[in-house]
Design brief:
Rossmann fold, alpha/beta, two-stranded antiparallel ribbon, single chain
Length: 194
């Protein structure tokens, strides 16, 4: 079972894709992630949060529950439809000028290959563990190259503990890497050029 940990939708359950198409981020890791974010940025209220490789949408919807405006990117169309259903289940506004949540059904590479409507304050990327390190690093480079990051943005990458630290592009500096069982969260800061 996956659930929202805290915030306005705290305790609400989320549907997860059937089979092994995704690997949901555990409640424990999400709690650790949001505790770390709270120590860095304070409240998420009003911040823009980008969830890449969204899966069930648990991380992005957790951010929404805590006050962020969220975009979730998932390449599998059925899984993206599940994310949309989960967003409706927890009461998020989708679509229109006052949307709180946007679900993008498309590849992360294609999405990041164009400029966003506005930069993001927090980016969380949870690519499939078998995804090549070079692809993860290309995603990070695209965030910088195409203006996805606000000044002082936080970038978090979830990987297997067997994977090396990502090679951060110029502008993103590693803050910390923390292991939680089989998962490591790599957290960096984006420092925009003066």
């Amino acid at each position: 079972m996956t659930r929202i940990v805290a915030g306005r939708a705290g305790g609400r359950r989320l549907a997860t894709p059937r089979g092994d198409a995704t690997r949901p981020t555990s409640d424990r890791v999400r709690e650790a992630l949001f505790s770390r974010l709270a120590s860095w940025v304070g409240t998420l209220e009003g911040l823009r949060f980008l969830d890449l490789y969204a899966g069930s949408g648990a991380v992005g919807l957790e951010a929404w529950s805590r006050g962020a405006v969220v975009t979730l990117v998932e390449h599998d169309r059925r899984t993206a439809a599940l994310v949309t259903a989960n967003a409706r289940t927890v009461g998020a506004r989708l679509g229109g000028p006052d949307a709180e949540v946007e679900v993008v059904a498309g590849s992360v590479g294609t999405t990041l290959g164009r400029a966003p409507s506005a930069p993001y304050d927090v980016v969380f990327s949870d690519p499939p563990y078998p995804l090549a390190d070079a692809a993860v690093e290309a995603d990070l480079a695209a965030l910088v190259a195409h203006g996805w990051l606000a000044a002082e943005a936080v970038v978090v990458v979830e990987r297997s503990t067997r994977s090396p630290e990502p090679a951060w592009p110029p502008g993103i500096e590693l803050e910390v890497g923390r292991k939680y069982g089989e998962t490591t969260l790599w957290c960096g800061w984006y420092r925009s050029a003066p």
